[in-house]
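RETRY 2/3 - previous attempt timed out on the joint model. Re-submitting the same 967-residue input unchanged.
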Amino acid sequence: MSALAHVAGDPGLEPAAAAPEVKRRSWTAYLLMLPGVLWLAIFFLLPLVQLASVSLQSRYPGFPGYYYRDLNFSNYASALTDYAPHFARSFLYAGLATFLAFAVAYPLAYAMAFKAGRWRNLMMICVIAPFFTSFILRTFAWSQILADEGWVAGVLNFLHLLPNGHIINTPIAVVAGLTYNFLPFMVLPIYASLERADPRVIEAGGDLYANGFTTFRTVTLPISMPGVLAGTLLTFIPAAGDFVNMELLGPQRGKMIGNVINDQFLAVPGGYPVAAALSFTLMAAILVLVFLYIRRFGTEELV
Amino acid sequence: MAGFREAQGDLRLEGVTKTFGDFTAVDGIDLEVPRGSFFALLGPSGCGKTTTLRMVAGLEQPTAGRVMIGDTDLTGSRPYERPVNTVFQSYALFPHLTIRDNVAFGPKRRKAADASERADEALQLVQMASFAGRKPAQLSGGQQQRVALARALVNHPEVLLLDEPLGALDLKLRREMQVELKRIQTEVGLTFIHVTHDQEEAMTMADTVAVMNRGHIEQLGAPEELYDLPRTRFVANFLGQANTGVGTIKDVEGDHLVVNVLGTPVKILRSRSQVHEGDVLFGVRPEKVTVSRTRPEGVGNDVRGVVRDVSFLGVATTYLVDMPSGATWSCYEQNLDVEPLDLRPGDEVWLTWNPGHAFGVPTEDEGSLG
Amino acid sequence: MTTTTRTTPPATTSETPAYRPSAGKRAQVWLANHFAMITAVLVLLYLFLPVAYTFVFSFNDHGKTNIVWQGFTWEHWQDPCGVQGVCESLVTSLEVGVISTVVATVLGTLMALAMVRYKFRGRSASNVLIFVPMATPEIVMGAALLTIFVQGFANIGINLGFGTIVFSHIMFCLSFVVVTVSARIQSLDPRIEEAAQDLYASPMQTFWKVTFPLILPGIAGAAMLAFSLSFDDFIITNFVSGNESTFPKFVYVASRRGIPAEANVIGFSMFVIAVLLVVGAQVVSSLRASKYKS
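RETRY 2/3 succeeded.
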């Protein structure tokens, strides 16, 4: 849990390391928990149960939009067979975006933690500030920036770097949009974990290893690992389920799974059962990936 | 305030026990602290002294036993219902309140109309009046300590608890505060209970010291008494240095026990030994041992040894002497002689001491922590 | 990346002080020392690029679609509500944001207090219940909420609209509030609360006089986070809003034909207001800190 708390990045007061345990067993705790837990039960757990039940429903033939309760696992079968490419694309694009966001975010977080000095707070504000312009507006701005007549496409075309002359409405634009939109989620946790590190440790690493890259790989990166872990999860999870970037920046064909779920629910009559099965499959796939990922790279700090 | 228990008199703990799961932190303590005394609870970390203090404060409830002040039973009452205040180890000042508001916190909770004036008086007592408008973060450790003291004193508690209050201060400041605390205690005349692991601190400040080990009180008494006549091996080793040896009681000669320590007969005053037959650990403090080149006559106890090390300290010289038993004794000699002994490592010497200075305690090592 | 970890200049310059390196060499050294900072500034520019576009295109004298630059006008700034629906959706978003923030912050703070300060049966299950919503893609949450609202809650008279948006926003803000406030409570020395009790404060007084003022910055941070999450949410809102429109939904629907420049005006103004608030808070707190020092 604390890894996600990095996002909030609140250094707070000095931690009370040696303080005695003051945990008590009391009805007060249940009273305090009750409203929040009820809320999560009614508006998170219950909807998930309903979604699970919908994912097993069958359609009345000839009456689109009407279903009956069933244990129809064929929804999952068709979710997996018909939409496997969409899943694959979603994870591929989200994975690429996560990697790119990491590559871009790390130097920024590093500079904020060790080089910024009195500019640190200002840089922090700069990282958060773009959030306050609606993300749809910013994504739409990207569609203008990457448009065929825009300067980015112009420069890249001049250098003959674009195979078919476009960026907008290509997967490249989608990955670029995903990278951009979730970048602050990558920067803040990495910054939080680097900021707590002692810069002298990293200098000592620089003394022991002649090579700067070795220092980075053996000292800096491991120190910031909890932040990297939280950052990659906070980027990957929303990116894999996103459909806005594909809708505004991507091609007409070759959509991501988010688009399919969205359309099946909101645009296709009688789409609920398959869309529910797709949602569940997406959630399960992400949870499995997250679990494996934490097992592989995780520290105790995560949950 | 509802539930508040006015109480006056001596503090008494009766069979107080505290267990955390399988671990017994405090094991059936009986204790009586007379009103107005300066009492120290001394022991190594983990001996249960802080838990005992927290039970007096009401921050922990005893698993068994009673906490009383005078005739009032405080067991089961909450911290805010007790006429007891604490100076916490880390001071625990409220970081969001000014110094004055920190000190006035207690009086305000008890609806005192003159809370601010009383706070200022208390700050004057600890010489912090000029800092009343500041926040705790703007004070040094020593200053925070004084504020924490004022914040507790302002309530005129029946018992004031101090949990290692000087632990975070450097040596010089600690000495100053020891004197200061003693002065304030004499001035206000409250019962002070001071928890510490520093034997020197306990001995300088307290009227009565209770040495705690493994959840019970090993020995209780005036500092001189504990030092002069320890009753357990733990107390002998924890308070100051002791030269010790294990022997067997062979004989009684009048008022004295004759103990055989590896073939050498040693005498202990019968009244100064806790054991009167079988094995005994005898001991003698370093400054009670005289070092001489020749065997003196008629002192009572003498043993031959070989000098291992000599440290000249100015007012005194400390000798480390290898004994026939294999132990190494230390001897502390004031430099009073006109002709110095001029001993070198390797020299043979005679160590002598008055049997009235030796003590005997049981050999079984209950408190191996020391 | 190799040079980012260097804090001292390469040895050649310090070993031979008499030797004056060439301009090219010096530029190289300077670049090596400032690599991280230069990259950081470039990344920040990248973050601000779309915001700048939003700003510039708020002055676009566009016809039907605001996609390519056609000419300068103040028109949209003079009447940001000039396009039908844009200000209504903004008001809805602000209302949803405020209500969701207040409820989520109160409920989340209570939960955080219980999670940090108490041991109770079901604590680790609660931990999972708080963590999982943060690890669930928004589209799944949106889909699940849609099914329960349409197939379950509609039967008891709850229809898609303002209410369902608020219910959903409170839900996904709650976990973030708990995590943020917990971090603050954890960093609090429990002895400070013990000291309050020792000084005759009842549990309620201890909370209101000591605990609450000390965790307030954490609560404020959590509230800010909750508001920005709610205000900017589109995916879940899109599922549960029915005919109600929030600002992000308005922008998304409009984007098919080109977002009217009035939306740019509002979006950019929100950005400026938020930045001014944050900078103002920073300045006030640093002024206060410097006052203490004197």
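Chain C touches chain A through 110 residues (CB under 8 Å). Closing ticket.
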